[in-house]
Amino acid sequence: MRIQLKSAEEIGYMREAGRILAACHREIAKHIKPGVSTLEIDGRVEDFLKKKGATPEQKGYKGFPYATCASVNEVVCHGFPDDRPLREGDVVTIDMVVNKNGWLADSGWTYAVGQVNPAVMKLMKRTHEALFKGIEQARPGAAMGNIGHAIQEVAQREGYGIVMSLVGHGIGRQLHEPPDVPSYGTLGRGLKLKAGMVITIEPVFTLGSSGAVFWGDDGWTISSADGSIGVQYEHTIAITKEGPFVLTD
Fold this sequence. Notes:
It is an enzyme of class 3 (hydrolase). Its cofactor is Co(2+); Zn(2+); Mn(2+); Fe(2+). The protein has 249 residues and is of the alpha+beta class. It has a single domain, classed as Creatine Amidinohydrolase, CATH 3.90.230. The protein has helices at 8-29, 38-51, 118-136, 144-158, and strands at residues 55-56, 69-72, 75-77, 91-100, 103-112, 161-162, 168-170, 177-181, 198-201, 204-206, 213-215, 222-224, 230-232, 235-240, 243-246. Strands 1, 2, 4 and 5 form a four-stranded antiparallel β-sheet that branches. α3 (118-136) packs antiparallel against α4. 49% of the residues are buried.
């Protein structure tokens, strides 16, 4: 499958999906607190998207049964929402893909539940920083490796692990389109970026330095191998002649 460059009009359609997604994240952020379950959050997301005339794209994707991925603490990605109450000091990553009139936007965000350990709060801040360091590199003519290199520098500076098996991706009418967008790389190496590409950038860092993970028995849930906390921040980005444009901000 070749890379599909998007027109300004098509990017506008994705921006509409991205606005709904960003508004949904703002709404659920109000409700994340000790005692609330990720299953409740998932229901709120479904209701919110329905009111906006949008649908949760990953529900039913390869059999995934929920509107969101809800990953708590050492679960770094693709966690199933459940009815266990969140606890003070947890972190939870809510990842969702919004479909609006056939065009998609994807964004995951890690939230603190009440007051979290200072080391975990620093991990969140640095992973968020790494996301935007990567976004700054998403310009026409730049190499894909520049994005990953900028992200990797932050993790290495702090001694965090990078979950290298989880990468960003192209997106449009399909959830996963080429190219892959790793959170590690070498300056000047890799695919040359072009205006019209729309990609996700989504670093996943762990407090443990290895970044190694294992898959759960459900075939979806991915957890840190050393049991350390993992966090993720993700935006959908359009690469334009003027530079990177965040569609899910």
